[in-house]
Amino acid sequence: MHAQLTELDNSVKDKIIVALDVGSASAAHWIVGELAGSVGAFKVGLQLFTSAGPGFVRRLCDEGHRIFLDLKFHDIPNTVAMASVEAARLGVWMFNVHASGGSEMMKRAQDEMNETCERESLVRPKIIAVTVLTSSDSNVLLETGIENDMEKQVVKLAQLTAEYGLDGVVASAREAAAIRTTIKPPFLVVTPGIRPASATIDDQRRVTTAADAIACGADYIVVGRPITQAANMREAALSISHEIGEISYRSPI
Hints:
alpha/beta; TIM Barrel; 11 helices; 8 strands; 48% helix
């Protein structure tokens, strides 16, 4: 471990997004209270959003927490555009859409959100696009009629996302390096499916460690159960920060 990693700077901790994959506002708020200051942001997904609603997301934002709203909007362009406007009004730091929704959907979401933020003096959230879910593999692609191999499909969707001006993508670390060969920062790569080397993969298929994800070019990693189900959540988060810090000190991103 690097000698200076006992106290980590914010640039390292900020790379960790903790998934609040719980079923109630009270459970989520307890996790946030335990981890505030130890990680960079918190992810609110479908389960918690359906249970606790937009009011809870707004409350977290008002308390000063950076929130990644992970609802993966995928619908007709107008519906996604209007949902994107409402995400901005909640005050979230970042939210996502599905890149497979296509160029018109992504462009409308981006344009409507930007216009609303300017008109209403809102802080513009980052908007990123999901490429292929980390629970999917090549068999799932074939089931849905996609004949590209995984890496080719992910890179294709990332290029489409970049072309239409979104801030980045959600992608497995296994494809992050391939994305980075064609699309350079500040385009973001957000990597879910992070597990310590000793952990189980649960329902994810394309998983990796935090160090591997950062080394491959990820800007942010999304970590759920390895932190939220740990006996000491702060220690679990710090351990992952140390892992990231080692990579960052050796090869700055």
